[in-house]
Amino acid sequence: MKNETNGYVQESVIMEEPNENTISIMELPGVGAATAEKLDAAGYGDLLSIAVTSPAELVQIAGVTESTARKIIKAARDNLHMGFQTGEELLRKRLAITKISTGSKAFDAMLGGGFETGAITECFGEFGSGKTQIGHMLAVNIMKSDPEAVVVYVDTENTFRPERIEQLAKGAGLEVADALKRIQVARAYNSDHQMLLSEKVDELISNGMKVKLVVVDSLTAHFRAEFVGRATLAERQQKLNKHMHMLLKIADKHSLCVYVTNQVMSKPDQFFGDPTQAIGGHIVAHASTYRIYLRKGKKGSRVAKLVDSPNLPEAECAFFVKEGGIEDFT
Questions:
Q1: How far apart are the first and last CA of the chain?
Q2: Strand partners, 325
Q3: Is 325 helix (H, G, I), strand (E, B) or coil?
Q4: SS3 of 237, please?
Q5: Burial (CB count within 10 angstroms: exposed 0-12, middle 13-18, buried 19+), residue 163
Q6: Which residues partner with 135 through β-bridges?
Q7: Over the stretch 74-111, which tens digit does the pLDDT of each residue have?
Q8: Which CATH code, of 3.40.50.20, 3.40.50.300, 1.20.120.610, 1.20.1070.10, is assigned to 97-328?
Q9: Residue 247 to residues 197, 289, 292: CA-CA distances in angstroms?
Q10: Mapping DSSP to helix (H, G, I), strand (E, B) and coil, where does residue 152 land?
C-alpha cells in the first residue's frame, strides 16, 4: 500500500515485530565491565552494532584477541537470529522501505517513488548540475513528511547554505526556524574528519535523534585532494572503501537514506560519446545502491540519468531547479 503526503512517498505493510534482545552486551562471552565500557564509548553499545562489525574492528576497539572477538560477534548474531532468510521475508522488508520525494514527479518515477531508505544514492556531475540542490531539497522534504525527522549534513566543500533551506522551507510551508534546528551540519576539513563525522551518526541516534537522512557533499573531494598520483591510488581506494561501507552499514542498520554527491573528471582518451566519468572508480560504483548522472540541459534545465540500480531500468528525466524547489520540465 502506498501513502503519498507532502512530497514523501511511504510504502507500508504489516510488519513482524522485531526479535527482542534477550541479553545485554555484558552477557556476551568474553565481555566484562571494562570491555563493555570500551565498546559503548566507541558506539557499539547494542547487539546489532556488534553483530555487523568485523573481528578486526572489535580487536582494535575493545583490545581483545581475535578469537575472543569472533566469539563475541557469533554470540551477538546468534541472539539476533542473523542467518539466512527466505525471499518472501526479504520482500516483506522491501515493501516496508520509505522513499523521499525530490519534488519532481518524473524524477520520483524514475527512482520508483523517490530516494530510498536503507540505501546509498550517489549523484555525480559537473559543477552546477544540481547535486547540492537535490541534497537541500531532500532535507526539506523529509522534514515536511516527518515532524521528528533529523538530517545530518556532512559538508566537505562549504556548499551547505541555510539561506537555501530557508527558501525551500518557506516553499514547503514549514516553519523556517524549526527546519534549521533539525539539520545537524558539520564541516569536514579532511578525509579522516569526514569519516569520523559519518561514524558519529550512530551516536546521534543513540542520543535520541531520529536521523532519517545523511547527506555527504561531496564524497570524494578530500580523498581526491589528499591522495595525488598513482602511487597513492591503492591507499586512497582502500580508505574510500572503508568509508562507503560505514555509510552503507548506517543506512541499513537505521533504515535511513544516505545521499552522496560525487565529482567528475573528463577522460582525454575518449573521442566519442560523453567523456565525463565519476571519481572513485569501481569502489564507489559498487558500494552505491543507486547511481545518478546529472548534467545541464536545455533552457536552464537539468537532466538526471539513472545509470545503475539493482532493480530499475536505465532512464532519464529533465527538471528545473527553482527558488521554491525542484520542478518538472514541461
A1: 29
A2: 322
A3: strand
A4: helix
A5: exposed
A6: none
A7: 999 888 877 788 899 888 888 888 999 999 999 999 99
A8: 3.40.50.300
A9: 11, 11, 18
A10: strand
> Cα separation of 307 and 305, whole Å?
6
> Domain locations in the chain?
25-79, 97-328
Give CA separation, 64 vs 29, 79, 111, 167, 289, in Å.
12, 21, 44, 51, 34
Read out DSSP for 22-73?
-S-GGGSTT--HHHHHHHHHTT--SHHHHHTS-HHHHHHHH---HHHHHHHH
DSSP 154-186: EESSS---HHHHHHHHHHHT--HHHHHHTEEEE
Query: What cell numbers appear for 221 in the block?
Result: 573531494
- Number of helices (H), then strands (E), belonging to the chain: the values are 14, 15
pTM listed for this prediction: 0.82
The per-residue pLDDT for range 145-175, each reduced to its tens digit, is 999 999 999 999 999 999 999 999 999 999 9
C-alpha cell at 47: 547487539
